Amino acid sequence: MAKPPPSLTISHNPTGRTPPFDQLTARTLAAIFEDFYVRSADTITLYICASYDGRQVLRQQLFHRWFYYFERDDFAKLDEIIRDSTGTVYPLTLIVKRKNPHRAEVFEAFMRVTSGYNADK
């Protein structure tokens, strides 16, 4: 089983506890992804972390741990953040199958949208 990259450490954890790695959650996410992507190579997943309690970066890191747990090389993942006018950070993750015939255009559009959103307003 793969370990998450070292950069995926908890940067803000007000509880002081390390969240456990839940293998059942990882397996559930993998099954959901497999089901969605088996239906069509054109499937795209956009994951936006909930921010209601200020722990969205922690959620993103946990999602990355689950994602990398399976060492799948048939998915391509792109991570980005957007900030609102108050400076609140919203982590985003885009996932596509590597065989998606529109992968390059999807990634380009994702980067264009997120870059435009982060531009000075």
Number of helices: 3
Beta content? 15-25%
C-alpha geometry: flat
Number of domains: 1
Largest sheet: 3 strands, antiparallel
Distance linking N and C termini: 44 Å
Round the mean pLDDT to the nearest integer and report it.
Answer: 78
Could you give the count of β-strands?
Answer: 3
Give the C-alpha Rg: 15 Å
Stretches with pLDDT under 50, minimum 5 residues: 1-10
Structural class: alpha+beta
Strand order of the largest sheet: 1-3-2
Helix content: 25-40%
The succession of helices and strands, N to C, reads: HEHEEH
User: What's the multimeric state?
Assistant: single chain
Describe the secondary-structure layout:
Layout: H1 23-39, E1 44-48, H2 56-68, E2 75-83, E3 89-97, H3 103-118
Antiparallel strand pairs: 1-3, 2-3
Organism: Spirosoma soli
Protein name: DUF6169 family protein
Pfam families: DUF6169
Question: What features would you describe in this structure?
Answer:
The protein has 121 residues and is of the alpha+beta class. It has one domain (23-118). Helix content is 38%, strand content 19%. It is flat and about 40 Å long. Mean pLDDT is 78; it is low at 1-10.
Descriptive labels:
3 helices, 121 residues, alpha+beta, three-stranded antiparallel β-sheet
Brief digest:
With 121 residues, this protein is an alpha+beta fold. It is 38% helix and 19% strand.
